[in-house]
Design goal:
48% of the residues lie in helices and 9% in strands. The protein has 211 residues and is an alpha/beta fold. β1 (2-4), α1 and β2 (29-31) form a beta-alpha-beta unit. α3 packs across α5 (124-131), α6 (143-154) crosses α8 (169-185) and α7 (158-165) crosses α8. InterPro entries: CheY-like_superfamily, Sig_transdc_resp-reg_C-effctor, Sig_transdc_resp-reg_receiver, Tscrpt_reg_LuxR_C, WalR-like, WH-like_DNA-bd_sf.
């Protein structure tokens, strides 16, 4: 993974947290500019932990986040910004998780490991932002689409969903694609599993007790 933060002390601390974790995380590159994520060895990292304050302060953070997500990188935002609007915007852009720096090492390590495994992670700040979100345009899902969606959130792979539901992995993909299309048509893109989980919780399609 790659860590991008504008403060050297934060970089050192985050490196130490990952090294001392029960499930150690390998940091292949770290730096104060997002450029480190695009040059070797940073460009080979699947997960990028990103501080929204790095780089040109006049440039919107959305540009760099979208660029990373569009390139297939799993982005974990780790920032001092605790705005609900910023958190939801980052989800809209497809980040794997959004954390504030007050949430510390426990949540950052867990969110990073979850992102690396393509699993959603819901730290307190993000959960609060989702709970406070009352935006309209909720797509109407069929019972079968909701069932597949819930099973996918509970499983680590689509193959496991297929085995549980006695359908093919291709059929699982078809249902999930339909759900994503419905959200996209409603103006609320959900390109990642984490973003789709956020949408489902926002709209009451799944509850935390079901996960």
């Amino acid at each position: 993974m790659t860590v991008v933060d504008d403060h050297p002390a934060i970089l050192s601390g985050v490196r130490a947290w990952y090294a001392e974790a029960d499930q150690p995380v390998r940091v292949v590159a770290a730096g104060t500019s997002v450029d480190v994520a695009w040059t070797p060895p940073g460009d080979r990292a699947d997960v990028v932990v990103l501080d929204l304050n790095v780089g040109d302060r006049e440039a919107p953070y959305q540009r760099e986040v979208r660029r990373l997500v569009d390139a297939g990188r799993k982005v974990v935002v780790y920032t001092m910004q605790d705005s609900e609007e910023v958190a939801l915007t980052c989800l809209d852009l497809g980040v794997s998780a959004f954390l504030t720096k007050t949430e510390g090492d426990e949540h950052l390590v867990a969110a990073t490991i979850a992102a690396a495994s393509s699993r959603p992670y819901l730290p307190p700040t993000l959960a609060g932002a989702i709970a406070a979100d009352h935006r309209p345009a909720r797509p109407r899902l069929s019972d079968r689409e909701r069932e597949v969606l819930t099973q996918w959130f509970q499983c680590e792979s689509k193959q496991l969903v297929a085995e549980r539901m006695r359908i093919t992995p291709r059929t699982v993909d078809t249902y999930l694609d339909r759900v994503r299309v419905k959200y996209a048509n409603a103006g609320r893109r959900a390109p990642t599993k984490a973003a789709l989980l956020a949408r489902a919780i926002q709209d009451g399609l799944v509850g935390l007790d079901e996960l």
